[in-house]
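Lab notes, practical 5.
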Amino acid sequence: QVQLVESGGGLVQAGGSLRLSCAASGRTFSTYAMGWFRRAPGKEREFVAAISRSGSTTYYADSVKGRFTISRDNAKNTVYLQMNSLKPDDTAVYYCAAANNFGGTVSREYDYWGQGTQVTVSS
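Output from the prediction step:
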């Protein structure tokens, strides 16, 4: 089992940047594929980005491609989401998740979830 704690959220103006971090504890971090999801007010949770165990493969939602970058540091048991050129539509609670298997873009493939961190982008 793994415990996940997100940090780095906050209030930022449109066009600004934030970097989210997700610290993992418990079982060996490098055995998990990792993902970021988000839930905006009144909307369902949606996929944002995912990364393989080694970090060699990444996936992005079309809405964030070219603006967000997912990365991981297995030595620090941490996954990151660098968010640039933020838009008001990016406002949401952001969750990191860990998958025992592939992970990918589907939330039901993930086994463990953090508590979320709020990101608010003002226009």
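Observations recorded by the TA: The chain has a mean pLDDT of 96. The two ends are 40 Å apart (CA to CA).
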